[in-house]
């Protein structure tokens, strides 16, 4: 059974852009095209930089938040009560991350984050949103068939495990705190952070085992 938590309203700053560029996206695309034609930039290099910020540099902030929650029970409790303040205490603040809520995976419950109307995403802790997060198929199917969507990401969950779908808004964004992998009792925060992936903080994946992270 899935529980869906929706909080979108027309005045929340959302706009529908399923098949169209926003004004800013159009400007960026036009600039990229001009610079490419002039031979000033290499599109492949841009793609590589974006990929790095999507999957490595950006999500590192969130990984540190999760690692602190795993290793510090007081911080984990604070994160549950007031994620915005707890995350800010680690120095991670900024636009798209002013109001945060942390949802914790448990043996009985798995959490999944989506933005059904556009692509609200906690940039301050997760970096750039992946392309699939903004795609209409993910935004619609994550609500209708979350278990099927997770299976497409290679995440097969037991039927008995509940999946809760959280719908981000312009006012409130989410971060998933994945379950801590086994065999990590002796690891420090930096090593623990290495186990936290971007997808595990969205809910489309799990944290890595120590063996998988090597």
Written overview of the protein:
There is one protein chain. It contains twelve helices and five strands. With 214 residues, it is α/β, with parallel strands linked by helices. The protein has a single domain (2-8, 20-213), classed as Nitrile Hydratase, Chain A (Alpha-Beta Complex). The strands form two sheets. Strands 1-4-3 form a three-stranded parallel sheet, with helices on one face. It has a two-stranded parallel ribbon with strand order 2-5. Helix 3 packs across helix 4 and helix 8 (136-144) crosses helix 9 (146-152). The radius of gyration is 18 Å and the shape is globular.
Largest sheet: 3 strands, parallel
What integer value in Å does the Rg equal? 18 Å
Can you write the helix and strand succession as a string?
Answer: EHHHHHEEHHHHEEHHH
What is the number of beta strands?
5
CATH superfamily: Nitrile hydratase alpha /Thiocyanate hydrolase gamma
Principal-axes geometry comes out as globular
What count of helical segments does DSSP give?
12
CATH class: Alpha Beta
Q: What percent of residues are in strands? A: 5-15%
Poorly predicted runs of 5 or more residues:
6-20
CATH topology: Nitrile Hydratase, Chain A
CATH architecture: Alpha-Beta Complex
């Amino acid at each position: 059974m899935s529980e869906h938590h929706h909080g979108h309203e027309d005045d929340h700053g959302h706009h529908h852009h399923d098949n169209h560029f926003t004004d800013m996206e159009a400007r960026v695309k036009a600039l990229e095209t001009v610079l490419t034609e002039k031979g000033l930039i290499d599109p492949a290099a841009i793609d590589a930089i974006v990929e790095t910020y999507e999957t490595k540099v950006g999500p590192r902030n969130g990984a540190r938040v999760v690692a602190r929650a795993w290793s510090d029970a007081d911080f984990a409790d604070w994160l549950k009560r007031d994620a915005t303040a707890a995350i800010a205490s680690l120095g991670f603040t900024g636009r798209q991350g002013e109001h945060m809520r942390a949802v914790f995976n448990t043996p009985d419950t798995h959490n999944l984050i989506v933005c059904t109307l556009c692509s609200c995403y906690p940039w301050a802790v997760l970096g750039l949103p992946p392309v699939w997060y903004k795609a209409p198929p993910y935004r619609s199917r994550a609500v209708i068939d979350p278990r099927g969507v997770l299976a497409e990401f290679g995440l097969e969950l037991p039927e008995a495990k509940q999946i809760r779908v959280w719908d981000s808004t312009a006012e409130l964004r989410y971060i998933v705190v994945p379950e801590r992998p086994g065999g990590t009792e002796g690891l420090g925060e930096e090593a623990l952070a290495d186990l936290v992936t971007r997808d595990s903080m969205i809910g489309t994946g799990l944290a890595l085992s120590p063996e998988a992270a090597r």
